[in-house]
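[job 4471] stage=fold_predict status=RUNNING
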Amino acid sequence: MPRTALKLAAALLVAGLAASACSTVKMGAAAITGNSRISSATLTDEVANLDSAYQTNHAKGIKPQRAVAQKTQQVLSWLIVFRIYDELAAQHNISVTPAQSKSQLTRLSAQAAQSKVTLPEYVSAAGALPPDLLPELGQYFAIQNALATQLDGGTAPTSAAAQTQLSTEIGHQQCLAAKSLGVTVNPQYGEFDYANYTVVPAPSTLAANPSPTPSSSPVLVNPPC
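[job 4471] inference complete, writing structure tokens
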């Protein structure tokens, strides 16, 4: 059975990081994470890879489960989250092996098989993840699994209360790692929402809504970790 951490991370697949107040983003960058950047060219290439997967899936009758119109934001979200988990691993002295990453993908392949699809079809259709990023996804899950082991002392919690406590602590550490990077997203692609760790479309500056509806969810850009 996957650990609680793995179950939490899998929500990114089945459901469809403090942003800097800086008003500019380096030329050619889709996002800045710490001292490095995710280039617009990289983002464009990965969106093209996702498009190719969608076309392959369509020929097999497999439909995307997430909004195709927001595929650029979805792909950029993954690229940023992978950077955040690299930082998380560094902060906790976590080093995962290729074998550990592969083991996590094997677990995910079993989930895909239950839906009668391949792993590339599963991650692209359910999670808007370009299949060429599967190695990064395996490492992402392996880091979460290693962090859970570190936090619970190697004894997976069995009670609901203990599982909730572990989930909360993992979320806290994830938040701290994200804030330490000071993620900045190019306004061309949107803004980063800490509440969901996703890039969301930036609000229009042409027609501000002075009376937002009660259901509006404000973007959380500086979470109190």
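[job 4471] summary: The chain has one domain: 4-194.
[job 4471] exit 0
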